[in-house]
Specification:
Elements lengths: L1 E5 L3 H11 L4 E5 L6 H11 L14 E6 L2 E7 L6 H6 L2 H6 L3 E5 L13 E7 L4 E6 L1
Parallel strand pairs: 2-5, 2-6, 4-5
Antiparallel strand pairs: 1-7, 3-4, 6-7
Length: 134
């Protein structure tokens, strides 16, 4: 299932994801600059978090509180081994029933449930993206 959206239409992309996802664990694939963090920021807001989402590139995980519970946002771009993910407690996070948004999931694929929802973002041009739910 795919959707083409302009960066000014993030709400449309968020609604598409929330209406069609089969999992609360979303795996975000896309090249650097594709808009993964921007889309996650919009998702976190739509799910009711009061604070604005930011990239957890250096901390590996950010937690956002919502009326429905926490959201965990991961960015594994900078990890060099699966041991780093284990050291930060990835297995406990993945077992939680909370929303989990994971950037650069290819770095921790062996820990991921096959029922996780893949979200691929492709750059069409400066402002246009193609969103694929796989």
């Amino acid at each position: 299932m795919s959707l083409t959206y302009d960066l000014d239409q993030l709400d449309m992309a968020v609604n598409h994801i929330l209406e069609h996802t089969k999992s609360k664990t979303l795996l975000f694939y896309g090249e650097m600059g594709a808009g993964k963090t921007t889309l996650i920021r919009a998702l976190v807001s739509a799910l009711g978090a009061e604070e604005s989402a930011s990239s957890p590139t250096f901390s590996l995980v950010n937690e956002y509180l919502t009326p429905e519970g926490p959201i965990y946002h991961f960015d594994f771009y900078r990890i060099n081994s699966k041991a780093e993910a284990l050291d930060m407690g990835i297995e406990d996070y993945l077992d939680a029933s909370a929303w989990k948004f994971i950037e650069w999931p290819q770095k921790i694929e062996s820990f991921l449930d096959e029922n996780s929802q893949k979200v691929e973002i492709l750059i069409k041009n400066t402002d246009l993206r193609l969103l694929k739910l796989c």
